[in-house]
Amino acid sequence: MQDYWICDRFTQHVEIYRRQNAQLVRIATLLPDDELTSPLLPEFRCLVENLFK
Prior knowledge:
Layout lengths: L2 E6 L4 E8 L2 E8 L4 E4 L2 E7 H4 L2
Antiparallel strand pairs: 1-2, 2-3, 4-5
């Protein structure tokens, strides 16, 4: 697994982890107004707030 997303429905935050040197490293914490993207899914874009509707 290269990307790992943890979605917290209570805080409406998404933590993004990426594999680096055989470890998952947190690279971002997204808030409801942020846009979720991934280099693994180049066409994918989603506002974080839409994940929790």
